[in-house]
Amino acid sequence: MNSSKGGSNTGNLVDTLMEELNCETVFTLPVLGGISESVVVTWIIMAVLVLLSIVLVRNLRVENPGKVQLALEAGIGWAQDFFEGIIGKENRRYIPYLITVLLYLAFSNTIAPLFGFKPPTKDLNVTAGLAIMSMCLIEYSGIHKNGLKHWVKHFAQPVPVVAPIMILEVIIRPLSLCMRLFGNMLAGFVVMELLKTIVPLIIPIPVSFYFDIFDGLLQAYVFVFLTGLFMNEEME
Amino acid sequence: MLSLDLNLVWNIINLVVLYLLLSHFLFKPVMGIMEKRRQIIEDGLKNAQAAQDDAAKMKQEYEDALRGAKQESVQILEKARSAAKSEYDRIVGEAGDKAGNIIESAKETVRAEREKTMKELQGEIAGLAVASAAKIVGRTADEDLYDQFLKEVGGTHDDTDDK
């Protein structure tokens, strides 16, 4: 009985975990196929971000800015300075995209404890999509800056022998970005779900602060930081 | 969980759409405002610099003008002083001449007057002498008196002769 009870408990735990980990298909469109949970949560985050921007950006003034505007400008200014420090002042045009990714990741990584949604970044499709976008941006920035010829040549530098590794790097960089984010979020999520199943009260709160808030923000920071760093490397 | 499907594409589209929306609603206005403010501050600084330069130039001009005016005033004063001095000299000289003339003419007048008076007096004295002589002669044709008169006159006559 004991063993069977333990077994059923373990089975229940595994079932709940798997249920939480699964990215359910929320609804199915006739031609386009299933729309997963992460896409829907992303839509919600997008809506919130756009609404927030519209509300905060209203009544912007050049002189005598209000407190909200000052806070907004301080935030944007901080992000701008941060990315300018990485990719340089002459590549400012990539900064809005990087800030968008930063905002999106910050929201999606911390949405679990704040609003109860499953974080979209625990779905490999999301992180892979982000990584593919980063890869495109990294290579595009290099080609745009130094020209296609230089971009093709730079694979054979400093010696042609390294060419296979350099070409692999094109894939490896976004793959590492993707897997780092996915692994961190998934691990944090699994740990939190386990903890919540075992100890539902009090204890998860500080742990959640670490795994969801701190780690989530840290991973968002690391993702855009590394993307900017790779872009800078490519643009040299 | 670890499967890639069409949702990857949806997420990429989501990301691109989010980027476009945010750059339209958030980045463009906020960065535009920040850029505008930066521009205004830069313009203000530039204007302040220009105003300062202008003021310095104007001050220099004023100083030059002031220095010129001072020199000019000194010159004018000098000229006026020399003109006044020459005028003064001229007036004083004229006055001296005039005074000399007046004194001269006064002396002349006095001399002429005196001569005239002397002549008149001489005439009168002569008349008196003739009259008194006539009286004396008329009243007493005295030998003694003649003698006395002659003696007197001759005495002076002798004196002058002797000399």
Overview of the molecule:
Chain A is 77% helix and 4% strand. The N terminus of chain A is likely disordered. Chain A contains 7 helices and 2 strands, in the order αββαααααα. Chain A starts with a helix and ends with a helix. Chain A has one domain. Chain A is mostly helical and 236 residues long. At the A-B interface, strand 2, helix 2, helix 3, helix 4 and helix 5 of A face helix 1 of B.
What is the secondary structure topology, with strand pairs?
The complex is a heterodimer of chains A (236) and B (163).
Chain A: H1 2-21, E1 25-29, E2 33-36, H2 37-57, H3 67-87, H4 95-115, H5 124-153, H6 163-198, H7 204-235
Antiparallel strand pairs in A: 1-2
Chain B: H1 7-139, H2 143-162
Shape of chain B: rod-shaped
Please state how the strands of the largest beta sheet of chain A are arranged side by side. Answer: 1-2
Helical segment tally of chain B? 2
As a percent range, the share of helical residues of chain A equals over 70%
Largest sheet of chain B: none
Give the beta-strand count of chain A: 2
Order of helices and strands of chain B: HH
Radius of gyration of chain B using CA atoms only: 62 Å
